[in-house]
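To assess whether the prediction recovers the assembly geometry, we first specified each molecular entity separately, as shown.
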Amino acid sequence: MAEKNLDRRQRRSRRLLRDALFALILEKGYDAVTVEEITRRADLGRATFYLHYRDKEDLLLQCLEETADGLAEQIGLLQPARPQEEDGHLQADFSGKSPVLLVFQHAAQNASIYRVILRGEGAYKVSRRIREIASRYAAEFFSARLGYGDGEPRSTIPIEVVANYFAGSLLGMLTWWLESGMPYSPEQMSETFRQLLFQGLRQVIRPEGE
Amino acid sequence: MAEKNLDRRQRRSRRLLRDALFALILEKGYDAVTVEEITRRADLGRATFYLHYRDKEDLLLQCLEETADGLAEQIGLLQPARPQEEDGHLQADFSGKSPVLLVFQHAAQNASIYRVILRGEGAYKVSRRIREIASRYAAEFFSARLGYGDGEPRSTIPIEVVANYFAGSLLGMLTWWLESGMPYSPEQMSETFRQLLFQGLRQVIRPEGE
DNA sequence: ATAATAATAAACAGATTGTTTATTATTATA
DNA sequence: TATAATAATAAACAATCTGTTTATTATTAT
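The predicted structure of the complete assembly is given in tokenized form:
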């Protein structure tokens, strides 16, 4: 947002800086990357960096926010393709795809930034922020769909707990998947995750037949 | 381990450095802490720090390893109180307590280091290491108890996926719990986590009666 | 008592940061 | 196309932090 109002030179500089940072983090790890290196790789003056970002962390955080917005848009939480709900609930447009599947697909499409962020190689503020984002979305989602919304709640488990359980398990599986070189398709990952989440370990591991 | 063989001066120095680091991280965040500050707070010469640790991260990583060993011992994975199994399985001694409960209790007892580590305020290597430790234990645990061990596996889901699902959700709930000021007892957290993990969201949120 | 060794202060070169200054190059727009 | 606005730039800077080394003092184990 407000990205388009920038001078062409500014857009160019930001893009170059972002690309340089990602490449360098994947090459040598977040901590080892210096501002000097970023600008050298981007072929920009070092002073230019400070015209746009406060520091390395600031740059990475802004990339994270953009990525999170992009994902939210995909899922339909921000700009639903169809007109909104009428029953007061947050009613996302899933176009037949499960939101979890969309997450894995988005991760596959943006694997490089997902790797950088989920690895935890970003600064600690980045890791913290991504957990915040994930559990906030989860809380919105569950509150609208799993009986937390209106009448008497159908569970005694606080929604925050459920949201953090969800966010942790999803991020855990995403991280493993990306670090292992994405050995399964997004569809497979999504289906497995949904089984574990909704049916629980007992049903999934030991089918009732046994 | 091998901690007792140290000169008394060395033990004292390490303890002071560790305490100073924790206090400073909780006060101003990992990144802002310098070696100079740590030694000033510990009332030691700066050179002494480098006699014991390579850098700030090294110190924190060693604390993490000690804490993880302590937890593993509690759970009985490392030094089971009772003689080992006879059926070939890794047979931990649970003394009637669920391992998950022991985790939450250990976290409550060592809240300060757990906060520092789980917050992700530690260096990225720390975050990564703790996920590795958690999923390795989970994999061992599940492989011995949930039908992954000997005969034909009872599930098509790879154990690595289950382990990372487990580690992510447990760390997610732990992190939230600590950051929220531990609003529930370890027993409550443990019970809730086990319900979500084994019975799944569907059973837990919508009891079959409805 | 004494030999071993841990802690120490001081000094060091090197890296990095974030800012400022004066100048050049590019852009948007009339 | 002319021009006013402004982005990019190189250079220099003080400040901070790092990791190492040196020679000396203090504490420990035995």
